[in-house]
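Budget justification aside, the reviewers requested a transparent look at the raw inputs and outputs of the sequence design task funded under Objective 1. We therefore reproduce one unedited record. The lines immediately below are the structure tokens for a 249-residue chain.
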């Protein structure tokens, strides 16, 4: 279950953050306190990628994007291509987030095309998967996750990949999956990835905060976190990073 992998704490700012707020965050955050043990990444809005790029690099924080389009260039108004993200020195890109699936209506086919485009240009996708509360209550969580992971069939196994399990009912709600639920579901995700021939980190996401980070990061099979609201404040994000360092050191 690849417990040796360096943990990743990634902050997804979603549609939040002005340039002033970004500078204040970087002033307060200071940098990655234990780069040998934990990788730290931030995914700000597109408008902040270039302004934050150099300074984050100097702080030992990896830059990522929240979305990407699957074409290299052309008449796709409002879209951002992989090469533009590389130009801003992005390493990661989030794909398949539940908000993109439910609000924008992105299909598995679209997500796979974005994943392929990301790989083609040297980006590492963070593939988000997760079930709704209704699906969990029906007892079909594993089948939902397996269907979402099915886009990895035939995908080149040597390409960089991170998976983030985010139960939809825990995203931004303040409700966090129990340690038992997290452990059980991560075990299934790892088994499914192994069946598909992929060995990669699996993060947990869904109302991760300084109060629950240590417990969540201690769950078997959890190799980091995709953090939403708590990543907008430097102090709370740093507490999550430090809790992770405590678990792995």
């Amino acid at each position: 279950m690849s417990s040796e992998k360096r943990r990743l704490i990634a902050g997804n700012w979603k549609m939040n953050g002005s340039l002033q707020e970004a500078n204040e965050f970087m002033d307060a955050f200071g940098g990655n306190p234990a780069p040998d043990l934990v990788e730290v990444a931030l995914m700000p809005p597109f408008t902040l990628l270039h302004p934050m790029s150099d300074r984050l690099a100097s702080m030992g924080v990896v830059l990522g994007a929240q979305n990407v389009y699957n074409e290299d260039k052309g008449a796709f108004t409002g879209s951002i291509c992989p090469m533009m993200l590389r130009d801003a020195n992005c390493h990661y890109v989030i794909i398949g987030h539940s908000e993109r699936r439910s609000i924008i209506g992105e299909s598995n086919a679209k997500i796979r095309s974005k994943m392929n485009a990301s790989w083609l240009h040297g980006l590492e996708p963070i593939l988000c998967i997760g079930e709704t509360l209704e699906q969990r209550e029906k007892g079909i969580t594993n089948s939902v996750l397996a269907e979402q992971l099915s886009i990895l069939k035939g995908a080149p196994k040597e390409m960089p990949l991170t998976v983030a399990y985010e139960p939809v009912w825990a995203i931004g709600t303040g409700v966090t999956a129990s340690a038992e639920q997290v452990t059980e579901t991560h075990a299934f995700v790892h088994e499914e990835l192994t069946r598909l021939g992929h060995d990669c980190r699996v993060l947990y996401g869904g109302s991760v905060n300084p109060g629950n980070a240590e417990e969540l990061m201690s769950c078997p099979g959890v190799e980091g976190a995709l953090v939403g609201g708590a990543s907008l404040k430097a102090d709370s994000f740093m507490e999550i990073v430090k809790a992770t360092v405590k678990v792995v050191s």
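The chain is about 40% helix and 15% strand. The two ends are 18 Å apart (CA to CA). Computational costs for records of this kind are itemized in the attached budget.
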